[in-house]
Design goal:
The protein is α+β, with helices and mostly antiparallel strands. Helix content is 28%, strand content 28%. The chain contains 13 helices and 32 strands. The structure holds guanosine-5',3'-tetraphosphate (G4P). Guanosine-5',3'-tetraphosphate (G4P) is lined by residues 16, 18-24, 46, 87, 138-139, 141-142, 254-257.
Amino acid sequence: MALHEIQRRRTFAIISHPDAGKTTLTEKLLLYGGAVQQAGAVKARRSQRASTSDWMELEKKRGISINSTVLQFDYQGYRINLLDTPGHEDFSEDTYRVLTAVDAVVMVLDAAKGVEDRTRKLFEVCKRRRIPIFTFVNKMDRPSMDPLALVDEIEGILKIAACPVNWPLGSGDAFRGVYDRQGKRLHLFERTARGAHRAPVSVVGVDDPAVKSLLGAGGHAHLAEELEMLDAAGEPFDAAAILDGSLTPVFFGSAANNFGVHLLLDGFLKYAPPPQPRSAHPLVVAPDHDQFSGFIFKIQANMDPRHRDRVAFLRVCSGTFTRDMAVTHARTGRRVRLSNSNKLFAQQRETVDVAYPGDIVGLVGHSDFGIGDTLTEDAAIAYDDIPKFAPEHFAWLENGNPSTFKRFRDGLSQLLQERVVQAFTIPSAARSVPLLGAVGPLQFEVVQYRLETEYGAESRMEIAPWKLMRWLPPATDVSLLTRATLPIGTSVAMDADDRPILLLASDWALRCFTTDHPDIPLSDTLLGG
Ligand code: G4P
């Protein structure tokens, strides 16, 4: 087992509210990895919305980015896997699944906007997994919030200790650079040269004459005061607290100007963990376990019309992956040979012969692989399932044309396996039409669009009246939950794994239920394990 290969891997994702600068930061990180061409590809994806595929036609039409890619690059001896996450909030379930496959996260904030809604939601998922979170406060070249207020906001809203690793000198037009609190070096920002900046200037401390002359007397006094306050009252730096997810190191910069990105990347590599052990209840599997194992966290069909196929993205968790290896598919117990293994970058594919824990491998052509499935050489390992979230939108989906029923059925079953949406059955319902649930309504559009373009199946969608769904405890005696005991408009149904659920029409109905049935705990998330 190549321990060195595990130790040098860093697998992470970037989370942010749309427009905070995730794409820009991704591009700049790739530039450091020497992947200039690839950085161009990210940009192309953003600007052209990858118009080469039918599937992406929908993205283009709606101006959204649904498709996630995995970017791999080398930097200073590290092998970095950066997992891209969909930008649109309707696909947040996809994002959550990607987050199960990373060991750390970079959270990008817009310096003028602070902690925004979507960042907060994504952050909560990371916090639940207790993964290390690095904060990048972006767009310091624009008028920004007061940095102390920003740090307060991170701590107050996100309930995580925040320790600025560097500190901005002004913002907007007055942004002069950042002060590295650990190295006591000043990194100067020059607005004119987009993408270029002056080499760091070493200073002995904040009282160095270089700092004084740069900031002027007033600016210098202000900075000295802020730094003093941080030293005295701020959260002290604590590498162990970063690793257990209780403290986020904060970096300031401007991704568009390529400023502060280097400091972020260096700090990230210094403090982010290598691939971590993973729970396969009752086992915890260490990455240096000598037998190969991994799990599938994402499935994407028809990413590219040149390859009309289905890619299952596998996160390697232990051992060494080698192409053509035979493994056990834990859910079915079947032996499978993993021959068609790929690394994907935008539209390009490259065969992967060997991969180590932390790496992501795209497996092509296995129609029975589902989200959360374990592939393993060690038959004792079955990783905990990936969490499912309660949908907030519901619709009936009906076959639109009797002569293409089989295509409709097969297509839908494939899309459900990809977890594009969730499906439920209502035992008491007169109709046998599938009820679908989604976190965001665009997911329904994707289902209809893909049924038509990929499977040639027409469908009719009818919005269902529920607004909320909650999982009931598995042992609930649902026969006791009759119309008489349930709030108006509430139905009992089963999810795809035959777990009982409640469908509710409103928050009010939910409150009524919890008041009437304090003994029945409800859950809005189904955690694996
Ligand atoms: P996202 O992926 O998080 O949605 O954000 P993205 O990187 O696409 O950035 C959103 C917008 O913010 C882009 O402008 C981008 O150029 C700009 N931006 C990113 N980082 C900075 C920064 O450090 N400073 C400033 N001033 N702007 C920044 P756009 O007009 O939407 O796109 P473009 O025309 O620049 O490509």
